Amino acid sequence: MKIVNIKLSTIEDVRNFVNAATKCDADIDLESGRYVVDAKSIMGIFSLDLMKPIKMTIHADDCQCELMKDIEKFIVE
């Protein structure tokens, strides 16, 4: 399992993130406060508070996809 914080500032960011997440076979969750949604769901992401960073959890021990490279511009410390 891998956990990072991401920031999605624009509609374009959300679309690009979902496109990258969809390519990955692992289950990916986004968590904001007490809400948890599927990272591959555009509607789910828009139900979160996008004004602050969101916790992303990849439920795989070794994700073989290119996801981390594709979303590195959204990762925040």
Provide the descriptors you would attach to this structure in a database record.
single chain; 77 residues; alpha+beta; 5-stranded antiparallel β-sheet; 3 helices; 5 strands
Give a written overview of the molecule:
By secondary structure, this protein is an alpha+beta fold. It is 27% helix and 30% strand. The protein is built from three helices and five strands; from the N terminus they run E-H-E-E-H-E-H-E. A five-stranded antiparallel beta sheet has the order 3-2-4-1-5, with no helix packed on it. The mean pLDDT is 92.
Topology:
Layout: E1 2-6, H1 11-22, E2 27-32, E3 35-38, H2 42-46, E4 54-59, H3 67-70, E5 75-76
Antiparallel strand pairs: 1-4, 1-5, 2-3, 2-4
Write down the Rg: 11 Å
From the spread of the alpha carbons, the general shape counts as globular
- What does the main sheet amount to? 5 strands, antiparallel
- Placed side by side, the strands forming the largest sheet appear as 3-2-4-1-5
Q: Could you tell me the mean pLDDT?
A: 92
Order of helices and strands: EHEEHEHE
Indicate the proportion of strand residues: 25-35%
Helix content: 25-40%
Give the termini distance in whole angstroms: 18 Å
